[in-house]
Amino acid sequence: MIGNDVVDLELAARQSNWRRKGFLNKVFSSTEQELIHASANPDKMVWLLWSMKEAAYKAHQRELILPRRLNWLVQKCEISILTLETASGEVEIENHTYYTTSEITSDYILTSAEKNRDSGVKNAIFEASSSEVKEQLKNRISKEFALENKEIQLEKDRFGIPFLTGNDSFFFNRFSLSGHGRFYTYSLSLINCETTVKHS
Amino acid sequence: METKEIIYCLKKIVKPYVQNDLAFQDFGRDTDFIKDLEINSANLVDIVLDVEDEFNIAIDNDSMDNMLTVNDAVEIIKTKQREQ
């Protein structure tokens, strides 16, 4: 299963003060805090690790059908490759490992997490106002599946996990959505998905 | 502390982080921080820290885990205050 997360860096800087007393200890292990303090750009490191945790938890939540939880310390991040524009790593959650890939720009950090390596995750990011986001998403996703916009529906289960439905018992849940500030993203895993896509 | 009093304090704490003002008008026990108020997840950490400061309690990780609604927060605050 997959999950994703986007952080609008400009909004995060305005909206969250991770330097406030107690913040880091609620979210990051001592090893992760060392990465933050050793980083040349601690703000980016905070939001990179954050997005890895959030993306991995979304994949985990979908994998095991779990409610949302507020326990970031359960998600243990390891970064294996870090460049100025990309990062990849692993997040362990209660003996499950998720592989993460992140795109880092001056505006945002976008991370997707997958349970199985190379599950063909495709990420898309776009800017939209909150009033037009749903329509835009339906449009863009319909194009991914070569469907008509009116055929596809975006739904959420009782835990708020999104999935797609459509005509002819089309059902797709190897999918994740995230929005923060200016940015909205979706990720799709399109490899080996015969079992989940029933579109006759 | 009375439940009503706790909810009143929580409402003040949560206000600066709310993204859905319409849902905030119906703030009550059943209000869900994420689903209803659309609070950004990083700000949930701030809410936990603000609650700790305001009520002078320490919220351990297991308690924080389930703090998804106003009612969850009320129960955690009451339990922690009793323990003190």
UniProtKB/TrEMBL annotation, chain B:
| SUPFAM superfamilies reported in the protein's UniProt record | ACP-like
Q: Name one Pfam family in it.
A: PP-binding
Where the record annotates domain Carrier, the positions are 1-81
For this entry, the protein name equals: Phosphopantetheine-binding protein
Protein species of origin: Salinimicrobium profundisediminis
